[in-house]
Amino acid sequence: MRHKQEADPAPEVFGTVERSSLSTQAYQQIRKALMVGELKPGQKLNGRELALRLGTSLTPVREALLQMVAEGILESRTGQSITVPKPTRSVYGELRDIRAEVEGLGAERAAQRIDDAGIAELAALHDGLVRGKAERDYGTALRFNEAFHLGLARQSGMPRLYRVVEGLWAQSGPFLNYLYNGPEGWPVGDDPHAHVEVMEALRRRDGAGARAAIVKDILRGGAGMMQRLPD
């Protein structure tokens, strides 16, 4: 007589979701640290130290780091040590040019749909950048600068473009440490700053003007950066 086959036990769905969530959170926080330049070029990333800072176990941190290696955001040459890539002029130049194209499109689209509240939000972020520069607090300046660029991309209403911009900033963010490398490295103030030109174009609903202004900002900042990077 054929016995009835026993049903397989239900998969541990909740445990899998929880682990995935921790890995995702670790990924997002480490990537944000890269985007604002908190993690430095050439820095070796210790999984246990990061796990302690994030208040989690080593496994989700390791998974997040390996995902970033696969995406080309981080490097792992020995199979053991994971580091923040050291910048070169050619790598930064490529990232800069791609950012100009993608963020330029985002600014153009943002001009077609942004409202006064959105412009006020960008203005507040730019004010934070100005204060950081005035106080020689480059960490604050970098965070507000990144927030302005991502805020502008978000206003485009193009979520896929926004994710591309995030990925580009994760790769180029650590390089920004070279932009404010000591008092002599602080850029001379623009008159007006390109961010101000972006907001003026947004108020006019001038897509071409907004694109031109953010491209100007990216290329002008990149020019100073290129002087500080090795070949």
From TrEMBL:
Q: Which Pfam families match?
A: FCD, GntR
Sorted alphabetically, which SUPFAM superfamilies does this protein's record hold?
A: GntR ligand-binding domain-like, Winged helix' DNA-binding domain
Give the top-rank taxon of the lineage listed in the UniProt record for this protein: Bacteria
Q: Which UniProt keywords apply?
A: DNA-binding, Transcription, Transcription regulation
Q: Which InterPro entries match?
A: GntR_C, TF_FadR/GntR_C, Tscrpt_reg_HTH_GntR, WH-like_DNA-bd_sf, WH_DNA-bd_sf
PROSITE patterns named in the record: HTH_GNTR
Recorded hits in CDD domains, A to Z, give: WHTH_GntR (cd07377)
- The residues that cross the membrane are none
Q: Which Gene3D superfamilies match?
A: GntR ligand-binding domain-like (1.20.120.530), Winged helix-like DNA-binding domain superfamily/Winged helix DNA-binding domain (1.10.10.10)
- List the Gene Ontology MF annotations in alphabetical order: DNA binding; DNA-binding transcription factor activity
The residue ranges of the HTH gntR-type domain are: 20-87
This protein is called what?
FCD domain-containing protein
